[in-house]
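Below is our example:

___
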Amino acid sequence: WVHNTIVDGKWLFKDGGYYTGRFENATPIGQCLLQFPNGLQHEGEYVKVDTINAAGDAVQVHTWKGDAVTKVF
């Protein structure tokens, strides 16, 4: 935590899954691991992408960059 804002750590979900990695403006960004309660794992990266919304405004969105399921436990 820096200035009351999460920058790196683990985000636990109600269903038992979790995200481990970095955050920017309380949003996942960069290299990370997603662990699902059924044992499936995703390793990859959230990246910023510049896009245009329906109103024609330039916005940044975070999108997943990585493989599908990488491990089953």
